[in-house]
């Protein structure tokens, strides 16, 4: 491995989070005028609790839920021990005769053992005593945590009532955007954060989602070991709640983690001189945590089985087909999540795409399995019909042994068979369904489009949208598999993890250390193939994959319309909206066709709104009566695009809301900023009217984001046609060598393609000359007027530049070593650690504070 010579590097600020002249502001408030909320030390935890209380619909609902969780834990443990030690199953199954003084039937108390016998059974069973001790310690820990949370959330309740002026009865109907706006407003009065005069929406999101943004970035860069190639199953994903818990324990908040508190990365992880020592220390810590998981595996496994049994047995009995239903996998939620996207915003998006995703997966039912299921359902239905008829004729038939069990099993069998029989009215249209799914989930590999009918695409999509039964099975296997992943897979990536946190951590005044990807800076993390051509300086190592930076930026801007992005970002957003609106206006007018330049895709929005895979056929609104189109006969997508006009948006919105609620003073900006939460209280209106209004507003914001996501994907598809995508399903493991790139591509004489280095961590095929020139032409005009902020007010722990020029102006090709320095192609990268140069004197200096907005 080449010497890693990068030290604590600085990067120019991507935006300014304070007004001019307030970079080093420290608010001083006289002692007598300080409020209760002045200078909250741990704002991360405070804002998380404010958000959690809002999502749990107030203090009473949250308190009741916490109490029932404690009771549920006691019930599961106590009831399981009772069933295992205090029940006489011979009496219950009529295998033993019970003497009664009268001729009455056997009752349940007859099957319960006496208390002394029950206690003797428990004392004689060492495993039961061990489980009870572990459960008791865990329950006491939960009880102490519950009491602590009650005190903390009582303070948050007081904050809502006294500072935000919102009662607990109003909270279930208020949007998070409304709560957030009030928090930003009271910052001026209470000075919650003393390091900044004003808070921004991005500051609040960064504090709530600090660690989740890191997790999203690590999944986006394929750093976490969650994808495996198994001998029989092939490509598989294993990412469970237990594995996610261990990742967060290791990285963020556990003993010896990389963070010293909620908002600050430890100083030693910000410098590259001792990266090898830190990697060895992290590997050792991962090993010990893996061993601890292995020792606790029996207890956790028993708990998982019992909890699954008590949770899903009643559901399976009531709805036997529920196991055949699907749900978004935990990996899918992390892969599809935008940077700076709250939980309720993510689940709202995925819920809207659930029906289309289910229909798409149902398109691939096996014809052979369908024939078998129909015949099995016929035979099982015939037997069930006879048993039901006999029961109706004489109820004593139920007293016959196993009759009731047979009826239950036959009913389950019929329900399961029906899940394999497709709807006879269903039309096979996977391409259109996949396009509808893309409109909601916003992320999709390029090779899926045009191949939606293939089983390979279906299998890869099933990793994001899995069976509920598979989800339960993975959770049950998690205690066994998690230690193996930690010990044998995650430990090998310890050096890359250390480099990742150093290279992609920036410090923001008033916020602390955050993931640099969460800044949504096109210049630093944009991708040239995703409308960032000519506006990004990021190497392959720094680029976010799958257009994550660009799509996250658009989503955050639409969800939070009052957010003031930096000048370059504002230019990118406004130009994107202008291009979409220009094509939408041309698509909706037959007399004024679009006239685009040769470098732009022709009528992208026209193709979206009309054609075999139309967006106009996609119904985004939950209820058509709530979101009536102002223009009769216009597709829903075109109507949403019309709303992008700053002139017509206000009038269009008022016309659409006339059936629900008369609102005056709404602007186009307010329309797009409703967010995705469907709960609000309008001033002077009832809670129901406010909620109805919010439903309409949220549909407009959701539709606008869907249109932009489809447009960006269509533009990316046309710009990168012919290239091999570098997405999750094609990216190689981070420990593989970049030598796997084909020789014909490696020797490509195109000098422009060498502007982006080949990354050993995230290898990619270099673009062809034709595509590069087309992309350059198409992206020249966009973002040309954006200024590059040159400031030393941001601190970033990043790697060195990618390419450098040798003698005679020759470009020296470099390959990226795992999450660290760069090695020349001519030299083989050693997999063993080599001595690293001593840290420079800059490391001994106190760190500088830099500012980011």
Automatic annotation (TrEMBL):
It catalyses: a 1,2-diacyl-sn-glycero-3-phosphoethanolamine(in) = a 1,2-diacyl-sn-glycero-3-phosphoethanolamine(out); a 1,2-diacyl-sn-glycero-3-phosphocholine(in) = a 1,2-diacyl-sn-glycero-3-phosphocholine(out); a 1,2-diacyl-sn-glycero-3-phospho-L-serine(in) = a 1,2-diacyl-sn-glycero-3-phospho-L-serine(out). Residues 723-734, 824-836 have a biased composition (Basic and acidic residues). It comes from the Eukaryota. Residues 752-763, 770-793 have a biased composition (Polar residues). The chain crosses the membrane at residues 59-84, 122-140, 286-310, 368-390, 402-421. Residues 723-853 are annotated as: Disordered. Pfam families: ATG9 (PF04109). The keyword RNA-binding does not apply. One of its GO terms (cellular component) is phagophore assembly site membrane. GO terms for biological process: autophagy of mitochondrion; lipid transport; piecemeal microautophagy of the nucleus; protein localization to phagophore assembly site; reticulophagy. The keyword Phosphoprotein applies. Keywords: Acetylation, Autophagy, Cytoplasmic vesicle, Endoplasmic reticulum, Endosome, Glycoprotein, Golgi apparatus, Lipid transport, Membrane, Mitochondrion, Phosphoprotein, Transmembrane, Transmembrane helix, Transport, Ubl conjugation. Its main location: membrane. InterPro entries: Autophagy-rel_prot_9. It is found in: Cytoplasmic vesicle, Autophagosome membrane; Endoplasmic reticulum membrane; Golgi apparatus, trans-Golgi network membrane; Late endosome membrane. It is a multi-pass membrane protein. Phospholipid scramblase involved in autophagy. Cycles between the preautophagosomal structure/phagophore assembly site (PAS) and the cytoplasmic vesicle pool and supplies membrane for the growing autophagosome. Lipid scramblase activity plays a key role in preautophagosomal structure/phagophore assembly by distributing the phospholipids that arrive through ATG2 from the cytoplasmic to the luminal leaflet of the bilayer, thereby driving autophagosomal membrane expansion. Phospholipid scramblase involved in autophagy by mediating autophagosomal membrane expansion. Cycles between the preautophagosomal structure/phagophore assembly site (PAS) and the cytoplasmic vesicle pool and supplies membrane for the growing autophagosome. Lipid scramblase activity plays a key role in preautophagosomal structure/phagophore assembly by distributing the phospholipids that arrive through ATG2 (ATG2A or ATG2B) from the cytoplasmic to the luminal leaflet of the bilayer, thereby driving autophagosomal membrane expansion. PANTHER family: APG9 AUTOPHAGY 9, AUTOPHAGY-RELATED PROTEIN 9A. Belongs to the ATG9 family. This is Autophagy-related protein 9.
